[in-house]
Design brief:
single chain; mainly alpha
Length: 69
Amino acid sequence: MPALAAGSPLRALLAGALFGLIAYATYDLTNLSTLQGFTWRVAAVDMTWGTFVTAVSAFCGVWLMQKFA
């Protein structure tokens, strides 16, 4: 919402990346500590993917709202 109010897709990209990293790290690091066979490699790949997809989603949401709202 702050990025939308500021009209800044770049701000949404950065905030989305941070949010995605925190959310996916919470999930993956919990799995790493509780599930046997869950590796650091899987956790790192999933956190990277989560950071990317959340950042792109936030960027696209703000960009689309600017174009169509």
